[in-house]
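DM from R.C. (forwarded with permission)

"hey, sorry to bug you on a friday — could you get me a structure for this? deadline for the figure draft is monday and I only need the backbone to look sensible"
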Amino acid sequence: MARVWDDVLSERDREVYREAGYGTRGGGGEHPALLVVDVTYDFVGDRPEPILDSIKKFPNSCGEEGWRGMEVIRQLLELCREREVPIFYTKGMDDRSAITRGSWAWKNAKALNKGELAERIGNQIPPLIAPGPGEVVIQKTKPSAFFGTPLASYLIALGVDTVLVTGTTTSGCVRATVVDAFSLNFRTLVVEEAVFDRGEASHKINLFDMQSKYADVISLEEAKRYVASLTSAVVGAAR
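My reply, with the result:
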């Protein structure tokens, strides 16, 4: 089966990972939660437009890829709500002080120089995928959804054994969240069409690496079948 990362792998790399046994399918459990990582205007812009236009207003934007990803996330949200799957969002801190900003400016020269529009709406979640009643929005200061947040305790309290990961960026906050979820022994599923990045190469190679070692990278259709297969009794138990 063709995968999105096929064109960035050498034949040598394919053989090494194959012979070493990486990439085994782990599968999802019976009690999943959906995570929507950092899908705010800062990362998608205020409209679907080419990334080089979007980053003039929102320096962290992924441009049109973000809007395509949001449409996929919207579909997953609808299905997860129907099946009563717990849903969690993350975003940056509303309090953008020097303390909460921390080290972000060390590697990004524009981190401290956002324009008026980005300062005003950048940290808001677009209405297309807005949280519904009872859905938790976790503010965080670092890439992982788990670092310095109560997310793990919430998942444990709900009996969650699997996280369906969506959002942005694939190589940054998504990857950090996936590695921490793996480290906390949650089964981890990354929905390929529901994650996005500003860099094409980094998107592909990080999906490959997560699939190899930390998560199952699955398609939207696979994710839909998985969620649809959950019985109401099982989902209810996770509540």
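R.C.: lifesaver. The longest helix spans residues 64-82.
me: no worries. DSSP finds eleven helices and six strands in the chain.
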